[in-house]
Request: fold
Amino acid sequence: MRDSYGREIDYMRISVTDRCNLRCRYCMPDGIDWIPMKEILTFEEIVRLCRVAVALGITKYKITGGEPLVRRGCSALVRLIREIPGVEQVTMTSNGILLERYLGELLDAGLTDINVSLDTMEREKYREITGFDELPQVLRSIEAASTAGLRVKINVVLQEGLNAEAWDGLLSFAREGLADVRFIELMPIGHGADGQMLSNEILFRKIEQRHGTLTADRVSHGNGPAVYYRIADWPRSVGFISAIHGKFCGHCNRLRLSSTGRLKPCLCYEDSLDMRGALRDGSDAEVCEVLKKAILKKPRMHCFEDTGAVTERQEMAKIGG
Ligand code: SAM
Ligand code: SF4
Reply:
């Protein structure tokens, strides 16, 4: 279905939990009061929603969190969504800690792509950013997933005064062929508003100075707003998600579902619709009406460049990124 600005909406990010096994400084440094399980959508409710959404043309799904792999049975949910007729793709974004453990199940369930969030290759720095000494496990997971045939992308958020120099170490995944590496500009959402974003424009120049010309890579890499480049003979690509310095809203294709069933038309604004009520008390037609309303409420563009205009106040862990 198209929104009021003619954009085809065919992708939904589904947060399956607010819980996480890390405490990233820009996301949920102190933890949060966990939402009681009865308020969190069940797998049956999520699958029913996807069935209705497919009929509207939403055929691609990203499972997120919190950390999706801390929710028991997450691989089973991947399978259930994958098996809905008309679903084209189910992907996931994870911090990678539990990925090695669940890799076999996830592949079996039909997962084809995974984004692993990683902001440094230095063990001490990793502990400083996330609160836990898990870098070796994350690296093992990435290697195992890539070797087993999952398409892996590394998502990196750089901040001035914290990990601004980490980009070169992280580029080794692209140089060695294990994964694409994507740099996401820090967004002023939740604790992200306390950090200092490193601009992708500056980073782009630094990468070219170190590694030579970045050549536009026109091959499609996924469903998102990243713009991809290649470096000489490196086997994998380098992507930039420039939320602040590159308005990608003209190509926006997505809705976001929180773990409690709030359906968000845009990441930047607090507006959301109650999908849980429709799923618990309504017919499929009512579920479909909420989906349509959310699509038609999508604003023309976000306002991240004007922090004062951002109305979303929740932590990113509650939204799913
Ligand atoms: N736990 C999973 C993970 O870390 O990939 C999924 C949820 S996490 C909220 C999704 C993504 O949001 C991660 O790549 C994380 O780095 C990113 N993120 C969190 N807060 C952010 C912010 N303020 N600005 C930009 N990206 C952010
Ligand atoms: Fe957890 Fe992901 Fe947020 Fe880090 S970014 S605290 S891993 S939800």
Remarks:
- The first helix runs from residue 43 to 55.
